Every structure is written in C-alpha cells, then in structure tokens.
Amino acid sequence: MNIILLGPPGAGKGTQGDLLSDRTGHPQISTGDLLRKAVKEETDLGKRAKGFMDQGLLVPDEVIMGLIEEVLRSEKARDGVLMDGFPRTVAQAEAVDGFLAARSAAIDHVVSMEVDEEELVKRLLGRAAEEGRSDDNEIAIRQRLKVYREQTEPLVSCYSDRGVVRVIDAVGTVEEVAQRIGEATAK
Ligand code: ADP
Known about the structure:
This protein has a single domain, classed as P-loop containing nucleotide triphosphate hydrolases (Rossmann fold), CATH 3.40.50.300. The protein is built from nine helices and five strands. It has helices at residues 13-24, 31-40, 44-55, 61-73, 90-102, 117-131, 138-152, 154-160, 174-184, and strands spanning 3-6, 28-30, 82-84, 109-114, 165-169. The protein is globular, with a radius of gyration of 16 Å. The chain binds adenosine-5'-diphosphate (ADP).
C-alpha cells in the first residue's frame, strides 16, 4: 500500500508517519528528516538545502529527487511506502507517479491532515522551545505555512480527482488521530 501523509507544518505528519509505518510495516520516507540528517552531516546536498530550510522555503525539486530516488527504487519499498512531507509540489507528485507506475503500482491513500492555522502556530512555537529546530521561529513558521498553502495544498485537489483523498481531523490526542487515520486507510 502506498500512502502519502499530506498536511501543513505542525499537523503531526512525522508522529503519525512513525505509527503508521510500524502498523503497515512499510518503510517511511520523510524528506524533512532526510534533509535534517544531510544538514547535520554537512554533506554537499545538506549545505545546499540549509539556506532554503532556514528561510521556510522549499528545497528545489531536483535536490529532493536525488534524496528519495534510492529509497523509492529499493527492494524494501516494493510492497508499499509511507511518504511523510513528500511530495510537496506538483513536479514531485508527478515523479512519484512515475516511480510507482514503473512497478505497476499507484497511490492508494492520500491522508489530508487538517488543523487550523492558530493551532499550528501554537504547536510549532511549542516545538521550537523544546527541540530548537532552526526553522521553528515565528518568521520561518509563517513562511512555511504560506508556502504550504501556495505550493503543496493544490495537491489535495489533484489527488481528489482520483478518489484517493481521506480528509482527517488532525486535532486530538495522538491515539485519536492515529485511529482516524487507521480507519481511513483500512481498505
Ligand atoms: P514541516 O512540514 O514541519 O515544515 P518538514 O520536516 O517536513 O517539516 O520540512 C522541513 C523543511 O524541509 C521544509 O520547510 C523545506 O524547506 C524542506 N523540505 C522537506 N521536504 C521537502 C520536499 N519534499 N520538498 C522541498 N522541500 C522540502
């Protein structure tokens, strides 16, 4: 089963992605985690990505494709993958379709995690205090929300046309949200 977790920054994609990966046994692809690792290790790709991330902008598509190609092609992704924070642009979504089509697969579920903007800013500022992520300051947070609305949210209607979007209320306890996602992706 191929599942995409789609939602604004702060919606809880990472938390729910971990749980869903455990439940389904599918490998999880989190471009945010892969990028933060590259930045920490100061690889060439990490150095290129850092400036965009700190400003709350998207990292260019070709950098992202370099990052996820290997995972998408890997044997362990054969039965399905769980994508969290990816795809984020129409070009990335088309690339995913290409990879899946090559193995006669397709996206089964796009989980659209909905949280209102005030709650998102509150969560992200809370995380800033706890984890000290360099893009969790208020200016970058507002920018990330804007970028989400402009570049990523349009994917919801693209996928809606295929009948694969499952809209989830992502406000509640971790367990409550996990249950809603579990039910929506059970078939
Ligand atoms: P959040 O969704 O909370 O902003 P992520 O960890 O998913 O957190 O992403 C953090 C940053 O990494 C983004 O603001 C962006 O700069 C970059 N990034 C992550 N995934 C992608 C992607 N698929 N395409 C472009 N940039 C990405």
